[in-house]
Structure to design on (226 residues):
């Protein structure tokens, strides 16, 4: 079984500051990990994914995440926040077998102030 | 490709009414799923399907039925709506062996 814990339901940063959104996972099999973003009143868009290749994964809009097996973590970072990054971010995990369900964390709302 | 489409976008139901949320995809994806999104709860899996004729329950299946008669369509049925089913519902699909999931735009359902 898989599960995800996102630490911090709300993160606030200033424009230009580092963004760090935390995600820890639990999985009984090698995991595949994802970050999705949801802008207000919209659907979910994939930011990046880890599927057992490079542990440092680069995504869209300058975001990246590092898979750390020893820490069971997959934290999302961006060196410099932009106002347009304000959104809700979801970490998700699945097993690596065909047909495995994708399980989401509860989400972190990112606010960016000028 | 239209991707994953959902209808309707908005719906208001009275307690006890039934309805079907429609979901279709044109990407020939074997795997389809339904989630509900509630504030502070993230997305919770309701039902999923790995192919036509095969469905299984997710985390919160009670009060919902699904069927998968074709690869393209995966409707979600509420047999007797309850206020606790007020939520935003997302349908998603992917290839079984490719784990990137594509989401529809969502259906916002209110049960009064």
């Amino acid at each position: 079984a898989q599960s995800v814990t996102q630490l911090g339901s709300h993160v606030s940063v200033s424009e230009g500051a580092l963004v760090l959104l935390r995600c820890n996972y639990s999985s009984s099999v090698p995991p595949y990990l994802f970050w999705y973003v949801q802008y207000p009143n919209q659907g979910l868009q994939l930011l990046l994914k880890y599927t057992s290749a490079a542990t440092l994964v680069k995504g869209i809009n300058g975001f990246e995440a590092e898979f750390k097996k020893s820490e069971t973590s997959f934290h999302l970072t961006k060196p410099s926040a932009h106002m347009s990054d304000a959104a809700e971010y979801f970490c998700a995990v699945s097993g690596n077998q065909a047909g495995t369900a994708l399980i989401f964390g509860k989400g972190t709302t990112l606010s960016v102030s000028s | 490709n239209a991707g994953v489409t959902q209808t309707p976008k908005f719906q208001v139901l009275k307690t006890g009414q039934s309805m079907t949320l429609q979901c279709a995809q044109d990407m020939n994806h074997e795997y389809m799923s339904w989630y509900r999104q509630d504030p502070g709860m993230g997305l919770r899996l309701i039902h999923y399907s790995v192919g036509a004729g095969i469905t299984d329950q997710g985390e919160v299946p009670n009060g919902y039925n699904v069927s998968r008669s074709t690869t393209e369509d995966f409707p979600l049925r509420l047999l007797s709506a309850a206020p606790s089913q007020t939520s935003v519902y997302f349908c998603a699909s992917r290839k079984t062996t490719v784990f990137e999931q594509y989401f529809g735009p969502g259906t916002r359902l209110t049960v009064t």
